[in-house]
User: What shape does this take?
Amino acid sequence: MLNIKISKICLNVAVALILPAAISAQQADQAAAAKPNPHMESHIGDLTGHSEAGADLYYRYCWGCHGARGNGDGENAPWVTPTPRNFVTATFKCRSTPTGTLPLDSDIYDAMTRGFITTNMPSWAALTSQNRADLVAFIKTFSARWVTDKAGDPVTVPPEPALTLDSIKHGKTLFQKLECWKCHGPEGRGDGPSASTLTDSNDQPIKPYNFYTGYRFKCGTTNSDLYKIFMTGLDGTPMPSFADVVKPEEAWDLVHYLRTLQIWHKSPELTLWEGTPEGAAIVKAERVRNTYTGNPIRP
Amino acid sequence: MHIKHICTAALATLAASALAIAEPKPAGGTVSGKVTYEGTPAKMKPIDMSKEPSCAKMYSTPPLAETVVTGTGNSLENVVVYISAGAPDDPAPSTAAVFTQKGCRYIPHVLALQVNQEIKIANEDQTSHNIHPLPKLNREWNKSQPPGTPPITEKYDKSEIFPVKCNVHPWMHGNFAVLKNSHYAVTGDGGGFSLANLPPGKYTVTAWHEAYGEQTQDVTISGTETKTVNFVFKAKPY
Assistant: This one.
């Protein structure tokens, strides 16, 4: 009786001593060999997407470019530039979360809905919202990162301050100071000194945004989308995050100035800027110069 | 009673091993050696920094690219030598690894550090840089660092060696080697390295060079002996 009791205590103590070590080793192994979860959900507003439903849609609409295993090597991929997104690395351009973190489900949903202008990725707005939510869930089955990591905390976009001339002028100074022009060009035409050397993380050449075209941005159309672009950076591209070096009010100043570079795109910022002698002179000179060699833009 | 004896003995052993963990590491064996090359290494081209005058003026003659740096006696620099197998993972040291951008170059060119160790990235230039490490296993981020801004601190939670670049200045190129334990060295002029405090056991030593790849050698350490392991990389002329 005594023996049994002692042996039991002994066992308990021994287990207590051994167990922590065993667990930490197991955790380490799990972290090292984390596998993607084949059953994922997405949550976009009231919608809940299911990867099982998304799989059928993916193998109908997406795999031609993004590949059977989601690593961006589909049948069409060799003819597609920029190369199709690789869902295995789980690096996404358009996020509302800080650089280096996973996007929100709604970020992927919005990107899919919008499509990527100047690329081969069309808008999938023709699919039902449930379909798109299901596809988001399925995309998350390709990378173990959706198991090990959480999405980043979204960058807060403070309310846009009233547009003033000072704001535009300060934005112009920041454009110089932060050296945006090194890639985007002194007049925002995407022809800065570093522009021709830029490559994305797949080592493919990539062009900086040309404001002269007035095209919508890769990650949206509004001023707050533009704000988000330089606070989050476009991961996988040369566009870095400025979140640690730009104050929110400065970021808004920059937004206001950048709108004046879109000289064929009507905006309150452009109207205000053209109302000043300085702004009118610059915009006029840029329009006359008209040296842009890409797609012709009608005024 | 018999069981009780066994139990006591077992507990004593466990307690002893627990104590051993708590004690400072006993001085163990050492693996040391030299990294050299054979053949003709490619001539490094001078870097044209004319697009960044604030950096170009810091050099009287244009600096050379650092993809292959050789030293005296055919030694190969910037080689990461580390224990890739056999040693337990070490906790990250509390000191940060420092990576500096100066004269539009990375100092050091190859930064070796441990998993979860803090990296402090500083910009000492009069120009904006963006720091864009390109890991495959870790998370990829890309941050702008204008002149005069405080250092960026980051860390990586997975062991991996990967390039770091600045998109604004395409010649800027460096490497982060994120390693699991504290037994590592990066070779300098002379190519020598020494990995100390290795308890007796069987180890795999890996030498990694950004252009010439990776080599491994197995070594067995007993007691406090010093084993010599040399690595010879085949230089490619282009």
